[in-house]
Amino acid sequence: AQKVTQAQTEISVVEKEDVTLDCVYETRDTTYYLFWYKQPPSGELVFLIRRNSFDEQNEISGRYSWNFQKSTSSFNFTITASQVVDSAVYFCALSETAGANNLFFGTGTRLTVIP
Amino acid sequence: EPEVTQTPSHQVTQMGQEVILRCVPISNHLYFYWYRQILGQKVEFLVSFYNNEISEKSEIFDDQFSVERPDGSNFTLKIRSTKLEDSAMYFCASSELGGRSTGELFFGEGSRLTVL
After folding, report:
1. SS3 B84
2. What is the least distance, in Å, from the CA of A46 to any CA of chain B?
3. Closest to B109 (Cβ–Cβ): which among A44, A101, A105?
């Protein structure tokens, strides 16, 4: 069965600090996809990244970076030099199908960036 | 930028009433989804829809729920007889080609349903 664990319920950091959001997953499939979504106070879900299980290369996009490690079943998300606009709930999700028909979401981590 | 739009943004209803939540997916997308988020909890998959039929559904999506694409643009979620526990934010999403192209589901801003 699939499971996504985001152990950090809430994190507060001061602006410009770096912050890492943890995500640990469980799956029996050898082919799976991992996602991060951002949910700002306005409520919508904003796609950040998808990573497939065959690609362990870390990715950097501006101030965002992701560290995928199959050995520890983790897909952590780091925000460098955090900004107030980064304040949101961040969800990690897992799909066992290429089409992402059925995303299993973690419980989310609420990040508050204090100015 | 194209977006998924949902109406209403908030609906309050009495227990036992029927509710229809509406979504307009992105026009060239072929796969459509409904997810829900009970307040303060995680987002949960309800159903996916492709080629005018349900392709997958979760245990939550029981006989009280139905989906329809009545006119080629709208994608609706109907709850036949609402219960208190149906109170949640309902998200519609769409994707191209089952998400294989980018893996990205485009979510709407959600419809908040409050059942009294």
Report:
1. helix
2. 7
3. A44
